[in-house]
Amino acid sequence: MRTVFKSQLSKTLVTLLSLPLIFTACRKDVTTQPTPAETPKSSSRLSTDAIGVTGPKGVCYVEVNNNDIRNVGSYKLSTGQQLFDIAIIFAANINYDTSTQKAVLYFNPQVSNVLNNKATYIQTLQAKGIKVLLSILGNHQGAGISNFPNQAAAQAFAQQLSDAVNTYGLDGIDFDDEYADYGTNGTGQPNSSSFVYLVSALRQLMPNKIISFYFYGPAASRLSYNGVTVGSKVNYSWNAVYGTYSVPNVPGLAKSNLGPAAIDIQSTSSSTAASLATRTVSNAYGIYLYYNLPNTDVHTYLSSISNALYGKSTTYNP
């Protein structure tokens, strides 16, 4: 099974109790099957076109431990529109408080810097029309989006997320079911209700914000419970395996809200990236996923993609 490393450095995540953690960050291949999806009837649906241009939205993860998220706003199409539509702060964590046995939202120092200086990092991008989301993933402590023991626990964590969105002026939350190490600290294993309860509660708290799902981990096979689907609550979902094309199997999401193409800017070849972009347009999907935008100028690489997506090259204005 092919493994893709998600970061070149350790994510330097600190636990809530200041206990040392040693870990590696890796991505394992996921098998998904394309399925037809119905257009969901929800007031939370947003425009599916890219900013000011017809074509797929560009969604870009930035490892803020190492790179400046403002770089997302430095790239434009040759006709002046922003290349990226959504920037994702990678990443906040789900820690586990062993004394209260509850999941706790945690920000490492680099994430805290971005959030606490929202005028500098977040509002700068929003002023360009770019939406800014916060990615949420586990931290090797046993807590994750797939093992809340009951609905009340899921709702309590959803409240923490909603409070963060409101406090820092964010445009939404992105869920990534990795690094939880389910079972650690006596926590439960993934269950069928947890993720559905979580996104349902968060959608109620944030009716007009973006909720997205990085299609990976135990949550990817637990998308329906008691007649409620994750696809009816989230806005978007995208493939999690860089350098590949795989349609996320999220019933309830239309093609315009799905991203089957995913690339790592620092490791996926430009020819592969361009081929995946061409395929995205040919198959009429609405998202193209970028990961690992560096601080250096990569507009030539990005032009190979934007030419395929929009028929326009990319420019760089740091």
Written overview of the protein:
Strands 3, 5, 6, 7, 8, 9, 12, 13, 14, 15 and 16 form an eleven-stranded mixed beta sheet that branches. Strands 1-2 form a two-stranded antiparallel sheet. The protein contains six helices and 17 strands. The chain has 318 residues and is α/β, with parallel strands linked by helices. The chain is 23% helix and 24% strand. The protein has a single domain (57-316), classed as TIM Barrel, CATH 3.20.20. Belongs to the glycosyl hydrolase 18 family.
The amount of helix comes to: 10-25%
Order of helices and strands: EEEEEEHHEHEHEEEEEEEHEHE
CATH class: Alpha Beta
Largest sheet: 11 strands, mixed
CATH architecture: Alpha-Beta Barrel
Straight-line N-to-C gap: 39 Å
Q: DSSP helix count?
A: 6
Give the domain tally. Answer: 1
Mean pLDDT, all residues = 88
Return the structural class: alpha/beta
The low-confidence runs, each spanning 5 or more residues with pLDDT under 50, are 1-48
Counting copies of identical and different chains, the oligomeric state is: single chain
Can you tell me the CATH superfamily?
Answer: Glycosidases
Shape: globular
> Number of DSSP strands?
17
Q: Round the Cα radius of gyration to an integer and report it.
A: 18 Å
| CATH fold assignment | TIM Barrel
Strand content: 15-25%
